[in-house]
Design a protein that fits this description.
Elements lengths: L1 E9 L3 H9 L4 H4 L3 E5 L9 E5 L5 E4 L2 E6 L3 E7 L7 E12 L2 E11 L8 H25 L2
Antiparallel strand pairs: 1-8, 2-3, 3-4, 5-6, 6-7, 7-8
Length: 146
């Protein structure tokens, strides 16, 4: 098991951050890492995710949404077509720290044979992508709440 994680504090309400997070249709307007998600943000639905890493790698994933806890948590889980090679669970968490201040945590848990071949470069690229997205989310949420 391997985890890549990034977090940021945002001066906004949990509901505001949540609305931005589940508005998949608007990702292309603000998100530098996940530039498109096709499908509804509902538990059990299969979605198509298009990402571009900071190093310029473009990828498409088709995970299933496993948890939608309004205002608090969104998760999806995907696995490679070859069983046991690579599974990944992506988790977004919104924690209210005080009124109009939240901690946004983005993490991915990797499991399977291919996690061993992940080099530091892959980790760094993904973590930087998370950070870029978190920074953009902060900017968008703080702009919309003021």
């Amino acid at each position: 098991m391997k985890e890549v994680r990034s977090e940021i504090e945002i001066n906004s309400y949990p509901e505001s951050v949540w609305r931005i997070l589940i508005d998949f249709a608007a990702y292309d307007q603000w998100n530098p890492f996940i530039n498109k998600i096709i499908g509804p943000p509902t538990e059990g639905s299969k979605i198509d995710i298009y990402i571009e890493t900071p190093s310029g790698k473009n990828r498409k994933y088709s995970p299933r949404i496993t948890k939608v806890e309004e205002g608090r948590e969104l998760r999806w889980f995907g696995k490679s077509s070859l069983p046991g090679f690579l599974n990944a669970e992506h988790i977004f968490t919104i924690e209210e720290l005080q009124p109009e201040r939240v901690r946004f945590i983005q993490s991915e848990l990797f499991d399977g044979l291919l996690t061993r071949v992940f080099g530091k470069g892959v980790d760094t690229d993904i973590r930087q992508g998370f950070q870029d997205m978190n920074d953009a989310l902060k900017k968008r949420a703080e702009r919309s709440s003021h």
